[in-house]
Amino acid sequence: MNIGWMFISTLYMVNLVAVVLLLFVEKKNPTVTLSWLLVITFMPFFGMLLYFMLGSTYKLKIMTHKYSLEKVEEEYRQAFLKLKNEKEPSKETYKYYKDMILLNEKNASSIFTQKNDCKLYIDAKDKFHDLFEDIRNAKKSIHVAYFIYKTHDEIGKQMLELLTMKAKEGVQVKLIYDRLGCIKTRLKDFQMLKEAGGEVLPFLPSLFRTCFHFNYRYHRKLVVIDGQIAYTGGINVGDDYLSKYSHITPWRDSAIRLIGESVSIMQLRFLCDWYFLYKQDVHNEKPFFVEDIFDIHEKPLEVINNMGVQILSSGPDSETSYIKESYIKMIMSAKKYIYIETPYLVPDDTFLTVLRMACLSGIDVRIMLPKKPDKPYVYGITLSYAEELLKAGAKVYLREGFLHAKSIVIDDFVTNIGSCNIDIRSFVLDYELNAIIYHKQFALDNKKAFFDDIEHSEELLLQDMKKRSIFVRAIQKVLRLFAPLS
Question: How far apart are CA 327 and CA 38, in angstroms?
């Protein structure tokens, strides 16, 4: 057999292995499967490599055998059972959404807590003002996790100096950042914090593992202080979030500050993430005990509003996309309105179908998108899906500047807010964290923020979309074929 035939035979076998893995080993949405089959078919061998690097979650089990994500989630479930409050939702308004609460609890191990206060931020300046004040007042622990931490930006420097000061005071400081979330950030940038006694871990600690996992990003944003105060949302640490980058401004985002019983769940989530990363060091043999979570847990701060809260987390290690399913349940439960803010609109077939059905059922569906994109190719896909929803009766708005907020509010009572975008990447490939708040005033605050944003927006009309050139339409249709891979 000559070299040419050997090469062709090898390509054939490699592609066959990739196809078998895709069809029979990994559990993927049929749309995602078909997209990858196209890539593998038209790019022999290289398509398989792309799939392994970008699409396969099976390698997570191979690359993390030392302390696997499954073990972390099992620890999470054990701790969940210790924290769980068996009481039924106390208010009649909660009982109306009991099916939603039960779904999130059974599906995602998401405890429903009733004694909470939640503050909404629609400006990063206000969020960092309060966060820095809470860090200054920390007595025992500060746990920080961000997808992007820009150590060379002014806000990054200020926060790092503050964390270093608290570490010198003896406060336990732990920090996680995504190694590829901001490519310019280096572990050595946190040297002064480490010298002061703080601990810093990138996702993932090993550069080799990062290379193989670079498509699975740690997209969560959370800070937990003394086990009593927690922050989450869409705001990372960077000056762009403060509208200081001239090429993408104004920047509109959302975040929340929680106190009360739900903070225990945020603390639990952080520590599970921390120990997973901690154990990736082959020289580290320290085991993870569920009791560690409770050693530093303080009594919750007293609250005024008694808001119902569930904390949801999901990622490529999850059996299913818990946050996506919580979004879908909200859409299916809405009777009056659904207001959505998201930087990207790249839904899968299920999400698109239920949203379209809501439009056709007479529900007031409104979607806010950015007017200025940060990723042009994803923006083309986003507008393509927006057109489809416009045809079904939705209203779509383009907010001036860049909109980075990720929230859904329905019927003046339920709000889902956090790090998860409405796109397949967030649903399947990224580690995400969201909070569902069951409270009328908080929902009304989010509703007001939405209508305030309309004042700074341009409505996208169906007739405007129809004016696009044939070339633009063709490009967007091609991009949609690869939407599951974006």
Answer: 29
- Take residue 305 and report the two structure tokens written for it: 């509003």
**235, 127 contact by CB (below 8 A):** yes
Q: Which residues are catalytic?
A: 219, 221, 226, 404, 406, 411
Contact 264, 307 (CB under 8 A): no
Q: Cα dist. 201→90, 163, 194 in Å? A: 40, 15, 10
Whole-prediction pTM value? 0.86
pLDDT digits (tens, 9 = 90+) for 81-135: 666 655 566 666 677 899 999 999 888 888 899 899 999 999 999 999 999 999 9
pLDDT digits (tens, 9 = 90+) for 183-201: 899 999 999 999 999 999 9
d(CA 239, CA 244): 5
